Write a sequence for this structure.
């Protein structure tokens, strides 16, 4: 593999084009691509072929998956200019003052949604199905914080659909991979049950989560969650009629990585982007 150029830019970086938005300089870009290459090791280990998910998700499909009940604050809608705005645009009017028309689609907030929706009505068989994908994801957050919390970011996921036991094994292998890779990279991670604020603290779903947690996060020392293992039970299998042969509705699980957050964790652990990149190269 050729080594990318990491020429340092004047003043050490590039100006942010807006809140929650960032252009990575060459060193951080090399870190992002190098880390993503290492993260594909889980897909290789689990024989999960790489696919490319859709760039937009239908509102109707997400509604059937309780997305808006669970994450009412995260959605970023895709809009288009209404026909009656086109004359204004061509005349030089400010786009921000012209009407937008809903398209019925949202930008993805997680990579797995598009993959799951594309498998609706499929039978993955008792042996199950694994897929790996990376995509740009977008979240409407209350605040943004450098690489720790972005409006748009890269998320890599390895998804499993099949039996209940298969989903548990998928998460066990995923968690082992995260800890193993963190050790190679010199990262100290803390594993903890995720606190999902969208759950009604007194509701039945919250009680179920407390008794049988379905999400664990791996966090850097400053609390930045850089990876998670997520057990969906057979929720998506039932909602989307995805079957696992005679086993009935498929169980699903995914291992997710926020790639920019891995870049942040590497810089936090090793001092500077250049030192983090040196450590990454020594790991290969």
């Amino acid at each position: 593999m050729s080594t990318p150029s990491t020429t340092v830019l004047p003043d050490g970086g590039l100006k942010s084009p807006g809140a929650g938005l960032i252009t990575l300089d060459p060193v951080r870009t090399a870190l992002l691509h190098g880390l993503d290459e290492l993260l594909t090791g889980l897909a290789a280990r689990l024989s999960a072929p790489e696919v490319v998910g859709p760039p937009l998700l239908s509102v109707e499909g997400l509604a059937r998956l309780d997305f808006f009940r669970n994450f009412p604050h995260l959605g970023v809608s895709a809009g288009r200019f209404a026909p009656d705005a086109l004359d204004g645009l061509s005349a030089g009017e400010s786009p921000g003052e012209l009407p937008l028309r809903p398209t019925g689609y949202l930008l993805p907030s997680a990579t797995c949604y598009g993959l799951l929706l594309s498998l609706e009505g499929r039978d993955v068989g008792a042996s199950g199905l694994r897929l790996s994908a990376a995509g740009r994801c977008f979240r409407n957050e209350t605040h943004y914080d450098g690489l720790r919390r972005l409006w748009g970011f890269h998320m890599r996921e390895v998804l499993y659909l099949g039996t209940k036991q298969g989903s548990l094994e998928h998460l066990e292998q995923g968690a082992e991979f995260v800890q193993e890779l963190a050790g190679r990279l010199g990262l100290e991670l803390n594993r903890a049950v995720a606190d999902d604020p969208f759950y009604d603290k007194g509701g039945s779903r919250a009680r179920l989560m407390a008794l049988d947690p379905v999400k664990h996060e791996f966090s850097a020392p400053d609390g930045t969650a850089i990876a998670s293992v997520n057990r969906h039970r057979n929720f998506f299998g039932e909602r989307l009629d995805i079957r696992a042969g005679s086993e009935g509705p498929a169980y699903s699980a995914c291992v997710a990585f926020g790639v920019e957050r891995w870049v942040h964790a590497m810089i936090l652990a090793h001092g500077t982007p250049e030192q983090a990149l040196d450590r990454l190269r020594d790991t290969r």
Remarks:
- The first helix runs from residue 26 to 45.
- Residues 10-55+109-283 form a domain with the BirA Bifunctional Protein; domain 2 fold (CATH 3.30.930.10).
- The beta strands are 57-58, 77-81, 100-106, 129-138, 152-162, 190-193, 215-219, 225-233, 251-258.
